[in-house]
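Journal club side-thread
Mid-discussion, someone asked how the predicted structure for our own chain would compare to the paper's figures. Pasting it here so we can look after the session.
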Amino acid sequence: MGFSSSSGFSMIAWMNPLMFTVLLVFFWIQMKGYMAFAISDSYFREALLGSADSLGLSIEESMSSLKVKETGAEMQVAIQGWIGTAQLKSKGKESESSVRQIAQGMTKYFENTPGGMNFITSYFYLIMGAFMIAMSIWMFTLEIK
């Protein structure tokens, strides 16, 4: 039994749920870790290094990763300063507790230290949300024939 139209199922009918599932899994994997929105790259770096310093950790920096010298924990850092987002995630299970502690310290830093903000992503989400609300209202006003 295949995906023929004679059986009532076509390949096109399965494509939408299949694409949605693949995208959902992709975004779930991509978004693991800690995200910061509406942030400048220098403010994120200051918070990261300040958090590590307050925990008594020294950090070895490379292109897109950090290594805690005392524990050997490695973490990946991705900063998109032009749109105001940044991500911090562990490179393995053994690094998760160190990353969690640093992220908690960064949260405290953000709460107590004013810094540079970049609201481009926030504005984008606001505009997209307004479009979704408008589309929902429009769809509810359609008449079903």
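Post-session note: The chain has a mean pLDDT of 89.
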